[in-house]
Every structure is written in structure tokens, then in C-alpha cells.
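STRUCTURE:
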């Protein structure tokens, strides 16, 4: 899959569907030639290099008026040598100079893929799944070696990239900016697509036209954030969900990131992704190395959905890992929205009994179980049960739940403390805080300095002691504030630029230790809902709480946007009470179920408050989910109608063999005298006859009809989806089961 043209100094990564081409310039720099639909592996491509004489340009070779880094497509541009665009790399020597010039040294090809030390990354299980090209470059002046790793997979249309820096010199080198990837694309006729929002409305799809200059999204908060997700796509303006060209770039990282596009005056587009250089500086001491996080680059000619399919398959199979990767996830009941901090062991046991009767498999005790935690002002950091609420401790409660036949899960917020806690009283110096400055709080809590191994260790010991003694099958790992006044008492002044990154490495370290010690533990990540819902976390927690907004209608946009990159198997989605806690909306329980099915499914309400009919519905929902959860976790996903554009949201999940599919259609507001509607489906077998079953419809059709003419949605008399009781209603969902006959 990697062809090296020695005479042309050209490297071609290809898998029959995509190609990625880079070359060594005459001056020894790394140039970019092509990324896109597969090209012939035997082709010679050096003629693609664009050289032209431009006014007001600086040239790096005396006498040459055609070759300037500013006007050549670069693979990993460095600051300071005739390229005036934003670089991927900016270093600084102790002499204050920030110039860097990397020269080609060598390359090697490796079967499979190496892990990234301390960082989450995609992986291979068999060596023949992927090939990796390593290109070794050097800045001879600084004695800095830079190794670029490119992996191409046989089965996924992606290229992954990361960079390793090694300081062979005798003086430190500061990395001021060290992005994970950069590409100069030969034209800029794209729109950029980003996933942006805020708490409770995460990952809305936003599309921008590109103009000369900079377009970027980033996080400076210490976590990937509710505001922007570490992902950018470039799409043609004509690209739709199912057709047209699109490039997707996703960063496997949970800390501060930058995703930036620069369009220059000759319509070259430079896109880069990596750790946010703002607030970052890494002191690369002599004889040490530094690895950037991994970036994943997808090319698809099958529209946004084609891009998502590649991300979903890769992230499900070769980013998520361990015991839970391929296992069916338990249906859970979470206590938070039902009781918040206010409960006793008896209340919990009553919940669990009812849950068990309904078919729920896992009972999750959320916040409030430890220390003096009766509100959000106290107790964080003391991971010992509150005897007033749990007289038999966590072990006792877990034991009773196991006896009831239901598994037990527990909430933690390992990275935080309240000042009113024993942990803080004994370690007041363990916080992230800047000497001489006041310290801001968020939700009355402070951030532990996870850049320090001894802090991570102290929290690990507490968690280990509980997890070793009590029968805990699952933990919800929460994180409820951003970092401010970032500074670590453990590092000297010239390493303070490392703290945000070291912090997230500490978070990864704690995850890794827990996974190694408790390999069957299911970890669900959460950060005030979706504040750290990123590819980095998937490596440790195969599912994450998508948003604190549990309203089914709000979730349409959140889950739809999230699905651009992340598979449904990763999205925690629960049926909550009515009126909804966040928006006060009343939605039918069927709609709440239908929207939550396409995720790691559960409930977040007091089942004892439901009437008999609702409990019956809950039971049926759980049976339905259990029958379909394998499909939901492994099927191919298609977005069909966008809640960002219409009064409808619709999506489809199809078994990879095309024989079985679920289609979820939600009409947001009721319509009067609406049109007849049909919905073209995807991923079915053209010549296969299917039976179509919904609560109100039953008919047969061939795959070609369902994909060309479409699934018939409406009640023929009214032209609308009906609710079965003779009238229309708002917030109405329906599920169609499409089964090969
Ligand atoms: C955060 C989480 C919620 C819940 C509360 C508990 O807001 O996102 O799901 O766990 O904390 O305090």
C-alpha cells in the first residue's frame, strides 16, 4: 500500500480507494502533492509540482526565481524560511531564534502501526491491516530530529498522522507550535464544516464559505470543550449527505486544540490540526522526545455520510478497544435526573427493583453518594461513601444490587475537589493555581493538578480501593469545569507552557491504569454532558454522555451533529422524565425512546412515577432495544433528513449485509395538510424484497424502490404521519423496521 519512487523521491500511500502523495523537494523539504480518490500506484507525479515566478516573494536558493516555500504545497511547513503562511512547526532555541529548516534524512516502512506513548491512538491487531511510512527529517542546526508517521489502512479510507520530535543536541529546544498534521490543498473551493455549540447544545453543524485569510476553531479551556469539537471537514458547496467530495479531519485528543484553515491569495488552502499553540510551549530537553497527538484524515466522494461511515468504522473497531469494544452495552438507569443529591439506600433499592422488573441491566448511582456531598459545595475529592445515605457503604449497596440481579455503576469526578473536603484539607497544594493570583472556581470546585504524577496516584489509590472491594461494573467519569489560572507548582517557569498538555496526559494515565487494573470495567466519559466528547476519550471509554440536555427534540440536533464523526455505539442516550428538566418540554415516551435507541441506551428518571401504561411501554422499549442493540452498535449509519434544515429528523441503521434496517423518523412540529412524503433509503440490496413494518404501516417493496422512490411515510388520507389516535401531534417519532423477506 506504500509505493516509493526512488528516482522521483516520491511516496504514494494507496489502498485502491484513496491516495496520498508526498515528495522530497530538491532542497530536502517535504512537499505535498495529492490527497483524494485513488491514483494509479505506478504513476510518476513529480510534474504536479507547481513552480511559478511570483512578485514580492523570497526564494531559498540563490539564482532560483521559481522555488519559494510560500508558493509550494508543503507537508509540514516550518516557521521562518520564505513561507509567510501560518506554520505547522515553530521552534525556539535558547538563543531566541525561531527559525527551523527540516531536511530529509531517511524513510522506513513498517507493517501495522506503532502505539503513541501516553496518548490515545488508532491501532492495528494484525500487521497486515495497515502500513506505516516513517519519514525522518532533521534540522541540522539544532540537531532536532523529526519523524513523520503516516498510516494507511486496507479497510478504512483514512490516513493517520503524528509527529515525533527528538532533541539530539545539548541544549533545550522549545516547541512553540507542533501541529499533528498540515496539508496544502491545490484549490480552495470548499466550505468548511465544524461542530460547535455550548453546554446543552453541543456539536451543532455550522458551515462557512471560505475566503482568503484564516478560519479556525479551537479550545483554550483545558478540555476539547462544548464550544468546538476537534474536527473540521472541507466539502464542496454541491456536496450533500450522500454525494460529492468531502475531507474530514479529526484529532484524537481531549485537551486544547486548534483546527485552522488558511486560504492564500493564490487559492491554496492550508488546513492544520493539533494541540492549540496558544498557551503551549514544550521544553524539549536534550535526548528527550515529544509526540504529537494523532490526526485522522478521511477522504470520501460519497458525501458527508460517506465520510462519517469511515470515521464510525475506524473509531468503533480500531480506536475503541478492550473488553467492551464488541460487547452489547447494558441498558442502564441513571439516578441523576430522578433524585440528584437527595436519596437513601432504600430509595435506591426501590429504583433498582423497579428497574430490574422492567428489564434494565445496570443501575448507575450518580453524584451525591460520597463524603458530605449533599449539594455541589462539598465533598469532591473524598471518594468514600456517606454513611448517612449509605449505611452499608458502596460495598453493601453493590452486594444488594447484585442479589437483585442488576449490575452496579458509580459516578466519579476524579479530576476535581471542593475546598470543603478532607482531600483538599490534606493536600491544599494539589490544585492547578498560579502563585499570587486569585483562583476562579466553577460549580464551587477546583481542578486537581493532573500534570503531577503524585496527584494522579493519590486519586487512583482512592478509586482502586473502592473498585477492588465493591462489585462495580461501570463508572461514569465526569468533569464539570474548565481550567483557569493554569500553572503547576511542580514545574519550573520555562515549563509552564506544558501544563495543559501534561494535565490531559495525566487524565489519560489514570484511565489507562484503571483499564489495566479492571479490564472489564465499562467507563462512560462525561464533562457536564458533552464537554469532552472527542476521539481521545473513545480510546478509554467506549461510550460518553453526549449532552446534559436529555430532551428528545433537542437531542435530534445534538445526536445528528455528533454522528458526523462519532458512532452511535459511543453516544450515551437516555429516556428522561416529562416535562423535561432542561427545556420543560413534554414529549411522548415513544419519541423519547425512539431518539434514545440510537445510542448506548438507558433511562434517567424515577420509574416509580410512571403510570402502568408507561411502564408497559418502557418494558417494550427495552425488549426492542435488546433485540436491536447489536445492529445499532455495528450497523452502517445514514443521515436522511436534517433537523438543522427541516421540521424532520430521520436516520437509518443498516446491517452491513443490507438485509435488515431500522429507520427512525421524527416530525418535530405537527403540520396541517402537509404534503405526501417519501424518504429514499440507503444501503439496501436493490434486488431484495423487504417487508416494511411500523406501528401504522405494513407493506412489501424491493430495495431499488425503497432507495429510489423511497419509503412511504404518510398516512395517505392526510398526507401526514399520524399518531394512531386520529390526529397529529407535535414531537412525533416513528420507527420503521425493514427486513429482507
Ligand atoms: C454533570 C453531568 C450530569 C450529572 C451531574 C452530577 O452535570 O453531566 O450527568 O452527572 O454532573 O453532578
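SEQUENCE:
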Amino acid at each position: 500500500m506504500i509505493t516509493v519512487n526512488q528516482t522521483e523521491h516520491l511516496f504514494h500511500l494507496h489502498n485502491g480507494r484513496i491516495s496520498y502523495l508526498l515528495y522530497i523537494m530538491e532542497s530536502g523539504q517535504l512537499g505535498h502533492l495529492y490527497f483524494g480518490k485513488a491514483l494509479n500506484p505506478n504513476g510518476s507525479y513529480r510534474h504536479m509540482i507547481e513552480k511559478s515566478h511570483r512578485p514580492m516573494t523570497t526564494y531559498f536558493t540563490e539564482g532560483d526565481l521559481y522555488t519559494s516555500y510560500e508558493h509550494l504545497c508543503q507537508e509540514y511547513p516550518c516557521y521562518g524560511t520564505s513561507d509567510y503562511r501560518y506554520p505547522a512547526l515553530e521552534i525556539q532555541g535558547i538563543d531566541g531564534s525561531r527559525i527551523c529548516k527540516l531536511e530529509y534524512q531517511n524513510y522506513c516502512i513498517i507493517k501495522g502501526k506503532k502505539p503513541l506513548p501516553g496518548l490515545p491512538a488508532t491501532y492495528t491487531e494484525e500487521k497486515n491491516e495497515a502500513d506505516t511510512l516513517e519519514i525522518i527529517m532533521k534540522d541540522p542546526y539544532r540537531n532536532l530530529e523529526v519523524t513523520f508517521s503516516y498510516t494507511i489502512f486496507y479497510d478504512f479510507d483514512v490516513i493517520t498522522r503524528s509527529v515525533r520530535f527528538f532533541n539530539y543536541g545539548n541544549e533545550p529546544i522549545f516547541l512553540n507550535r507542533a501541529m499533528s498534521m498540515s496539508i496544502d490543498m491545490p484549490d480552495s473551493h470548499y466550505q468548511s464544516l465544524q461542530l460547535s455549540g455550548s453546554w446543552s447544545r453541543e456539536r451543532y453543524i455550522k458551515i462557512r464559505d471560505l475566503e482568503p485569510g484564516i478560519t479556525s476553531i479551537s479550545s483554550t479551556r483545558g478540555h476539547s470543550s462544548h464550544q468546538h469539537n476537534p474536527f473540521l471537514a472541507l466539502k464542496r458547496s454541491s456536496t450533500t449527505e450522500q454525494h460529492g467530495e468531502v475531507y474530514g479531519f479529526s484529532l484524537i485528543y481531549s485537551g486544547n486544540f486548534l483546527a485552522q484553515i488558511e486560504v492564500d491569495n493564490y487559492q491554496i488552502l492550508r488546513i492544520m490540526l493539533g494541540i492549540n499553540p496558544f498557551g503551549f510551549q514544550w521544553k524539549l530537553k536534550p535526548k528527550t522526545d515529544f509526540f504529537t497527538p494523532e490526526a485522522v484524515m478521511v477522504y470520501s466522494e460519497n458525501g458527508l455520510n460517506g465520510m462519517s461511515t469511515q470515521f464510525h468504522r475506524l473509531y468503533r473497531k480500531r480506536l475503541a478497544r478492550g473488553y467492551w469494544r464488541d460487547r452489547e452495552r447494558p441498558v442502564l438507569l441513571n439516578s441523576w435526573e430522578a433524585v440528584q443529591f437527595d436519596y437513601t439506600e432504600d430509595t435506591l433499592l426501590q429504583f433498582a427493583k423497579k428497574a430490574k422488573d422492567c428489564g434494565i441491566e445496570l443501575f448507575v448511582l450518580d453524584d451525591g453518594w460520597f463524603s458530605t456531598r449533599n449539594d455541589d459545595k462539598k465533598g469532591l475529592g473524598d471518594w468514600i461513601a456517606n454513611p448517612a445515605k449509605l449505611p452499608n457503604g458502596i460495598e453493601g449497596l453493590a452486594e444488594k444490587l447484585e442479589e437483585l440481579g442488576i449490575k452496579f455503576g458509580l459516578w466519579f469526578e476524579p479530576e476535581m475537589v471542593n475546598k470543603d473536603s478532607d482531600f483538599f484539607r490534606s493536600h491544599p497544594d494539589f490544585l492547578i493555581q498560579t502563585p499570587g493570583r486569585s483562583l476562579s472556581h466553577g460549580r464551587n470546585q477546583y481542578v486537581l493538578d493532573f500534570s503531577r504524577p503524585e496527584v494522579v496516584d493519590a486519586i487512583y489509590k482512592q478509586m482502586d480501593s473502592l473498585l477492588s472491594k465493591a462489585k462495580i461494573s461501570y463508572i461514569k467519569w465526569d468533569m464539570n469545569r474548565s481550567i483557569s489560572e493554569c500553572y503547576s507548582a511542580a514545574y519550573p517557569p520555562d515549563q509552564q507552557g506544558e501544563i495543559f498538555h501534561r494535565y490531559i496526559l495525566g487524565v489519560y494515565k489514570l484511565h489507562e491504569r484503571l483499564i489495566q487494573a479492571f479490564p472489564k470495567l465499562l467507563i462512560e466519559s462525561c464533562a457536564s454532558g458533552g464537554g469532552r466528547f472527542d476521539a481521545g476519550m473513545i480510546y478509554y471509554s467506549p461510550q460518553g454522555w453526549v449532552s446534559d440536555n436529555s430532551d428528545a427534540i433537542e437531542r435530534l440536533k445534538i445526536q445528528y451533529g455528533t454522528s458526523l464523526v462519532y458512532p452511535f455505539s459511543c453516544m450515551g442516550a437516555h429516556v428522561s422524565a416529562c416535562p423535561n428538566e432542561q427545556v420543560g418540554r413534554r414529549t411522548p415516551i415513544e419519541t423519547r425512546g425512539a431518539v434514545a435507541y440510537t445510542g448506548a441506551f438507558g433511562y434517567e428518571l424515577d420509574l416509580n412515577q410512571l403510570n402502568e401504561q408507561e411502564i408497559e411501554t418502557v418494558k417494550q422499549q427495552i425488549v426492542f432495544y435488546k433485540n436491536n442493540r447489536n445492529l445499532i452498535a455495528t450497523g452502517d449509519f445514514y443521515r436522511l433528513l436534517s433537523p438543522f434544515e427541516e421540521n424532520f429528523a430521520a436516520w437509518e441503521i443498516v446491517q452491513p449485509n443490507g438485509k435488515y434496517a431500522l429507520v427512525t423518523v421524527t416530525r418535530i412540529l405537527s403540520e396541517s395538510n402537509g404534503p405526501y412524503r417519501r424518504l429514499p433509503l440507503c444501503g439496501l440490496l436493490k434486488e431484495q424484497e423487504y417487508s416494511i413494518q411500523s406501528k401504522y404501516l405494513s407493506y412489501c417493496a424491493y430495495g431499488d424502490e425503497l432507495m429510489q422512490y423511497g419509503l412511504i411515510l404518510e398516512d395517505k388520507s392526510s398526507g401526514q404521519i399520524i399518531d394512531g389516535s386520529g390526529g397529529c401531534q407535535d414531537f412525533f417519532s416513528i420507527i420503521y423496521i425493514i427486513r429482507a423477506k
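REMARK: The two ends are 40 Å apart (CA to CA).
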